[in-house]
Write a structure and sequence with these properties.
- The structure is a single chain.
- By secondary structure, the protein is an alpha/beta fold.
- It has a single domain, classed as 3-Layer(aba) Sandwich (Rossmann fold), CATH 3.40.50.
- The longest helix has 29 residues.
Length: 242
Amino acid sequence: MNPFSLEGRTALVTGANTGIGQAISVSLGKAGAHVICAGRSSCAETVGMIESAEELQLDFSDPMAAQGIFDGHDVDILVNNAGIIRRADSVDFSERDWDDVIGVNLKAVFFTCQSFAKARLARGATGAIVNIASLLSFQGGIRVPSYTASKHGVAGLTKLLANEWAAKGINVNAIAPGYIATNNTEALRNDPERNKAILERIPAGRWGEASDIGEAAVFLASPAAHYIHGAVLNVDGGWLAR
């Protein structure tokens, strides 16, 4: 048996319409999973890139949006990728921007994990959760207070849930992506000074590809990671080791 195979398993990926979420969905599909591509906007493009996939509309501006989803879908793997960011100086940061980001990036992650685990435990089934954390789960960043707080929270929540569910057959881990070449980082890559500074800090000497995160998600969702619980895997080209 291939320990990295996801044949016969169903995965739900949130924020699957583009970027890292799309890449994770495609990678899971290549590993043999049936992928439910969930997003606030259409995931039709992502679904078209996968042999066995379907689309599901989930808008985490309501952090409880996933309640009941797993009762109707027998899902083995959950990838919490959906997230938002708001930027402003901390002295000017609004309550609305704080609440919106914490709601999507942290509250929704917890209650989606809870819904998934309830369904798996009720079935007496195992499962795997992969949360998408950030380099800002370990660093402070600048002008993104609610994002930094939320991603520190995701790292802590991943460890807490692993403590509670590891012995019950549910693996809970996270990935902390480094600087990845997606639409969200296009402005940075097009800025010669920022691009140069970032590349000089990355030991690998290149921006990451979204597929780098996708392959890491396959690993953490697969039987090969059966004894990995509560880990936050840095996929950053060595950024945090610098």
